[in-house]
Amino acid sequence: MKKLAAFISTILLAGCASSPQGLRLNDLQNADYLVQERILPLGFVQIQQALIKHQAACGSGPEFTVDSDHPSRAWVAQKSTPDAGWDKTLLMVLLQRPPKEGQFSVKTHVYSYYAISDKDVEQMYSAILRPADCPAAS
Fold first, then answer.
1. What's the rounded Cα separation, in Å, for the pair 43 and 113?
2. What is the DSSP letter of 101?
3. Of 87, 91, 115, 128, which sits with the fewest C-beta atoms within 10 Å of its C-beta?
4. Can you tell me the distance from the alpha carbon of 135 to that of 28, in angstroms, rounded to the nearest whole number?
5. What distance in Å separates the CA atoms of residue 9 and residue 31, rounded to the nearest whole number?
6. In this structure, are residues 28 and 86 in contact, taking their beta carbons and an 8 Å threshold?
């Protein structure tokens, strides 16, 4: 009987210790979590270069990733902590638009699961548009 109780306790504790699946990238890209949309007069290369400059100037910043399945789509992600999941990440989805008169542009959609301020969104855009401007420490 004691062995059975110990076995059941072990199973219950193992179930409590495992973390839930959590929010996935596709789950976050939902109209319920859409915070803002904009069009930026830049292409992916310019955005990636700006973010690299921002990281060099400020020591950290949003991460840029191109969708390997759809090269006209990319993400800029700002995690609340280095190991944060998608539920604690400010996500900007970039959609490359066809060039008009030789000028690229991207449509952006910013998503967040957690409550954020307009300042958080502006800091993400600032990292791209004004890469030398570092956010004030909070």
1. 27
2. T
3. 115
4. 25
5. 42
6. yes
Strand order in the sheet with 73-79: 34-40, 103-111, 89-100, 73-79, 63-66
Percentages helix, strand, coil for the chain, rounded to the nearest 5?
A: 40, 30, 35
User: Taking the chain, what is the end-to-end CA distance rounded to the nearest angstrom?
Assistant: 56
Q: 92 forms bridges with which residues in the sheet?
A: 76, 110
Tell me how far apart the alpha carbons of residues 24 and 107 are, in angstroms, rounded to a whole number. Answer: 22
Task: Give the pair of three-digit tokens for residue 111.
Answer: 């998503």
**Whether 131 contacts 51, CB under 8 Å:** yes
The closest of 122, 55, 68, 59 to 90, measured between CA atoms, is 122
Q: In the structure encoding, which two tokens stand for residue 34, read together?
A: 């859409």
107: enclosing H helix or E strand = strand 103-111
**Tell me, what's the pLDDT at 137?**
62
Mean pLDDT in order along the chain per 10 residues (138 residues):
42 37 82 94 96 95 94 94 89 94 93 88 95 82
> H or E segment at 38?
strand 34-40
3-state secondary structure of 31: helix
Both structure tokens of 53: 């400059």
